[in-house]
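REQUEST
  id: r-88c1
  op: predict_structure
  target: Ferredoxin-type protein NapF
  payload:
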Amino acid sequence: MPAAASISRRQLLKGRTATPPFAPRPPGVTEVSVGHCTGCAACVEACPQDILSLSAGRVRLLPELGECLFCGACAEACPEPVFDATRVMAHRVIIDDNCLARADITCMACRDACPESAIIMRPRIGGPFLPKLDDALCIGCGACIALCPGQAITYSPLGGPP
Ligand code: SF4
Ligand code: SF4
Ligand code: SF4
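RESPONSE
  id: r-88c1
  status: 200
  body:
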């Protein structure tokens, strides 16, 4: 048996498959619908924010490069059934321990950047205010990711980590 096939079978028996890591997608694209993506790059060219790219031949969002405006230009450019009409992102954000406020440095950049008021600053004793995200209000636009000086904001699939 060829080595590659042997490794594949071993992974299968251990319950591990070659599932790629979670990637954020533009609004209206799900992990199922992205299966229709042919990698033509029409959406990448259409995005006025230049925040789309192809990864493994499929469209992905790069929130760390800038905010999605939900303008719909990507959906309009796409010739395949990749985008649904909801324009909802399939991810939300997470603020991790790299937040500067946790290192006693006052920072409210994410709160100030958020167009949905999804981040509030909570007072605490003995240190700067800490950001708290309201998952229900976050639309996954990425404005906070791009502007966070601590690179403390990442994303996860809607409904929880993978
Ligand atoms: S909705 Fe607009 S800004 Fe957002 S990824 Fe699509 S083209 Fe870019
Ligand atoms: S335009 Fe549609 S098919 Fe082409 S890369 Fe973008 S999502 Fe994929
Ligand atoms: S990704 Fe969520 S928390 Fe961050 S700016 Fe956009 S709506 Fe606000």
